[in-house]
Give the backbone structure.
Amino acid sequence: MKARIKFSEVGRRILKWIPNSLTLCNSLCGFAAILYTLHAHEFRFESIINGADSGAMNVFNTVAILIFSAMIFDALDGIAARILNAASMHGIQMDSLSDMVTFGVAPAVLVVVLTDFLYSWRISGGITALLYICGAIYLGGAALRLATYNVYAIEGSKKNPNWFSGMPSPGAAAALCVVIFLMPQFRDFFRDFPLILPIYSALLGILMVSRIPYLHAGRFLMSVRHNPQRLIVLIALIAVVTIFRLPGLAVIVTLYVLSGPVLGLYNLFSKKEPIGQ
């Protein structure tokens, strides 16, 4: 009987480490993304000589894939914590620290390095400073967003768990990644406006610290089994990505980015209390 009790206690401890292990995978993806971004400089000489930047773009695409992979681990650790009843304050803090690396530092480094690599011949000292400021705004927005989330978790003051107040950091990182995926198809546009991506990252940073409501995608996915309407929406989203692939994913992510301001304006003009918290 004692042996069973001990095994049960050990088993529970192991189960409680599963969400933390998934969170660690999230942070490792972010760490790998940062390190791999720096490899783009190895192709700078080749780009100058041959006028080709395909090698570097492959690096940037791989980094975007790593960040998206981290989003999968980020979603799985929350699901595992709920299923295994292993949610804890330690796990919440660890999750936010991992998100800071993967969805804060890694995307900011990616935007700065990519812009500097592709357009260094067109960027003056003043524009370089603007580039760094845009990256800093995104990074600061992610840090403040995650700190706010932790405060709500500690105080238990979140009014509606199905909504965020401000764009969640994984959503902001996804918005940047889909742009990088599509850059080869719109190369001329980005060459004419080299600061479009940094400015977009700064806007995302501002959205993260705003009080604009954004849907909690993780809770939305967890509720599809009990909500036929949400299940239909999920199937439709999967179908769009399956049929249209990257453009379909880009449209979905962009609509998510725009959904917050649209809903915020609706709340403002209808004088309703903000949904998010």
